[in-house]
Amino acid sequence: MPPSGPRAAVCLRRRILRSERSRFWDLSKDLKVRHFTPLRLVPLVILCAGLAASVGAFVVLRASERNRQQTALEQGAAERFGALQKAINEDLLALELLGRFYAGSHKVERDEFHEFTRPIPKHACCLQALEWAPRVRGADRAAFEESVREAGFPGFQITEHAPAGEMVTAAWRAEYFPVDFIEPAEGNEPARGFDLASNAVCREALEQARDTGEMRGTAPIRLVQEAGGQMGFLAFLPVYRKGASTESVEDRRTNLEGFVLGVFRAGDLAERALAQLAPQGIDVALYDMSAPVGNRLLAWHSSRLRGKAAKAPDEADVRLPGTAHYAAALRPAGRTWLVLCTPSPEFFAGAGRWHPWEALIGGLAFTGLLAGYFATTLRRTAQIERLAGQLLESNEKLEADVRARKRAEEALREREEDLSITLHSIGDAVIVTDIDGRVARMNPVAEQLTGWPLAETVGKPLAEIFRIINVLTREPASDPLTKALATGEVVVLTNNTALIARDGAERQIADSAAPIRDAQGRIRGAVLVFHDVTAEYEFKKALRERVKELTCFERVRNGLQEGLSVEQICRNTAEYLVQGMGYPEIAVTVITLGDRQFSSGRSAEGLTHSLHADIEVAGSTRISAGSSASRARPSSESGSRSVTTDRPWSTSWP
Fold this sequence. Notes:
Number of helices: 15
Radius of gyration: 58 Å
CATH topology of the domain at 106-263: Beta-Lactamase
């Protein structure tokens, strides 16, 4: 017989749970089977294929970009090489024309030289000057110098460089090659009279040109007329006697008359020749490979695209860099020059630089996303089995945590109530602060004494709520709670301390402060406990005053018993009153008896502030000398006043 009523409902619920549990285990079995299918290898296959494709695309694009950059570098460098070659050839051609002019003339006078060469430097690129240096034998030196002076150059003499670098009169030699004709003369005055043979670099080029009969140049040299810092070079073309034989070296040495020469500035050559070209981020260095190592750099042109001009590379020997470069040789005036073009960082900043990296990063990102998608899908499928099994356990644990949390909150609430009741039950004022000295709690007694309600004080600094001063000096007193937080010890407030309430009321208090520590001994805050002692201070003050009164009358009685005069008794009593005051060194006591006055040891006249005391003789105590007791009355001392009170004696300040 099937169950009915509540029993039937329970049976139905159990069947539903068994059905759901059966479906869950079937799903778990299906998931376990899928884990071992080949689909688990799909993310790995995608990752490998995508990585290979991305790296391949990067390699191809990187090679293409490098080829493009190399082509652009070669084209730009070829343009710069051609510009330099054209500029130096045109300037050297001017020197050749001057040499032909000398070869076709019997004798070239000074005016003829200037007339022929005047227009040439204006159109040259790096030509500083065209000059004529005749051959002067040692025996003819004086006559030559005199002839130049007569030509309009007074003070002319043959000069040379001293070891220190200054220009001095040349020493005697068998022959000289002094500079005589110069065009243009302006700016080249220091070169006039300079003996070219006195310089070792120039002498080497002079001898080569003399012996070969061809144009020869010098290694990089600092020009005599150079005011800046760039290097220069000289090119010499020999001039022989008209109609003389020049077949052999000996003939050429014998028949040499002098040299026409060109003075060139290497820095101007690089700057002016390359100024007409569009900047491409290419640096150009010009080296004289025929010069000794260490003196090969002729000129350096930093790309105009650089934000800051780069320095010329250090040159111990010309070594081509391992990166992209372009090198070509020039051979002007028998020298071998190397033109070295290297790309600057700005050269690589053009379009297409990042294409290979974009392809690589994009391919890797797409591969990672696709492989991650498949891996995530399979991983989530595998997690369903674990999550389903953990669900019931998590629910049970969550319920247990909720119950534990409720119990903890209830216990905390009870502790809070106990603490609040305890604070409200304490008869002293209590203020609790955090580690920064900000108010956290106050009991009603503290609210009453400070005049601040708890709702307005939470979070405020204690100094705003608890204002204390020294009663004697009226200066702010030190905060004991701050000291307790700093030292970690209990701090007791000093005597004579008053609390200024919010409404300005002043109460004398006694208090102490102590740090609050946690279980590990770390300071978490502090507690301040204080109470009102105003009544106690007033009682003690009245008691001290009464003792003074009784002592005063005792001294009067003793004086009468000892038979002292009234005057002596009054003076002794005045001295005693002065010693009992707070500042005896500036106080004066005056006792008025009838129309007579008795003061302490010094005069009261002239004092800005004087303390006066009257003694009223009344009741059973009488002081008389054959006359009745007289009541004290105000003194007529200048600027002073005496006060009579109901007490036998009193003191007051003016």
